[in-house]
TrEMBL record:
Keywords: Kinase, Transferase
Family of the protein in this entry: Belongs to the carbohydrate kinase PfkB family.
Domain Carbohydrate kinase PfkB: 17-312
Xref: Pfam families: PfkB
Protein name, per record: Sugar kinase
Gene Ontology molecular function: kinase activity
InterPro entries assigned: Carb_kinase_PfkB-like (IPR052700), PfkB_dom (IPR011611), Ribokinase-like (IPR029056)
């Protein structure tokens, strides 16, 4: 491998970022409890790519969310909430023939089950034609997740087309979060499809646990995952509440996760990806980008929804500047 470059040498210093993927309305028992005994369901929004977009906006990164919504109250609510977070939603089209996707959460003592009602949704009709949209074509970086190719043949064709060119020939880098959702892959094709996509991205995020679920003993640890995924310019392997490792060229950087009082883990992976990307886009060294990823994930872990508040700018800078010992020992 050639010597590692700084993130600023290989990633665009200029946004905007285009985050492509479906966001759904989410119905959640309030207060939290089993769905079959719930008297009230609260309405929230849920989408990996819009989560990333909102956290990027929190970090001051110009960002677009690109998708499709139904011409219905859920669609209008989602568009308004994502826009209110500072995200450009001009690339989100309204489909008059298909509904906005929906999920329902069922919290239980052994975790939360999710029931999806998204087949035939507006976003499931996305196709490679989306790549000609100005919101995507003029982006400096494109981000998507492994949820999108599971939604339909057209969505799978979209992400395949996005990664068709070899990394060295692309006009802008592509960031991919594996984000494996087993319930969306009933045909058992997830392992092969997600491995192929993860290998072709410029930057790939993957959790060590999901890598092991997908690829078994070949993903025994972070180094083994790098052997599986040698092509991404940057590979980030997240090991839950323990640490995250970034492979940048021939360099390896590992940063432990700070202590966080966890309320709910949903959305933390999306937040981590946004923090790491924000660090790269402002030219931070890999270790500081990993730290920013951890701190942004902490914002999601501290709330019951997917999107929680970041520390203020002064506190965020203080946390990033901690010594290695203080970082490992301290929480927020």
């Amino acid at each position: 491998m050639k010597p590692a470059e700084s993130p600023g040498d290989r990633w665009p210093a200029r946004p905007p970022v285009a985050c492509i993927g479906e966001t759904m309305a989410a119905l959640v028992p309030d207060p939290a409890g089993p769905l079959d005994g719930a008297g009230v369901l609260g309405i929230r929004i849920a989408g990996a790519e819009s989560n990333v977009a909102m956290y990027l906006a929190d970090h001051g990164v110009p960002v677009r969310w690109v998708s499709a919504l139904g011409d219905d109250p859920f669609g209008r609510r989602i568009r308004a909430e994502v826009a209110a977070a500072g995200v450009d939603v001009s690339g989100v089209r309204t489909d008059p023939r298909r509904p906005t996707g929906l999920l329902v959460k069922d919290p239980g003592t052994d975790g939360t089950r999710v029931h999806y009602y998204r087949r035939g949704s507006a976003a499931s009709a996305l196709s490679p034609a989306l790549l000609d949209d100005d919101a995507v074509r003029t982006a400096g970086l494109v981000h998507f997740s492994g949820i999108t190719p599971a939604l339909s043949t057209g969505c799978r064709d979209l992400v395949t087309a996005l990664l068709e060119a070899d990394p060295g020939e692309r006009t802008r880098p592509v960031s991919f979060d594996v984000n494996h959702r087993a319930a969306l892959w009933p045909d058992g094709t997830a392992a092969d499809v997600l491995l192929r996509l993860a290998r072709r991205a410029d930057l790939t995020f993957v959790g060590l646990d999901e890598a092991q679920d997908l690829w078994g003993d070949a993903a025994a640890d972070a180094a083994a995952v790098r052997d599986l995924l040698p092509r991404p310019r940057i590979l980030v392997v997240k090991d839950g509440a323990r640490e995250a490792t970034a492979f940048v060229g021939s360099e390896v950087h590992t940063v432990p996760a700070p202590r966080v009082d966890v309320v709910e883990p949903v959305g933390a992976g999306d937040a981590f990806a946004a923090g790491f990307l924000a660090g790269l886009l402002r030219g931070e060294a890999p270790v500081r980008a990993l730290r920013l990823g951890h701190l942004t994930a902490g914002a999601a872990l501290r709330v019951t929804g997917d999107h929680g508040p970041l520390p203020d700018r002064a506190r965020l800078a203080e946390l990033l500047d901690r010594t290695s010992e203080g970082w490992a020992e301290g929480g927020w």
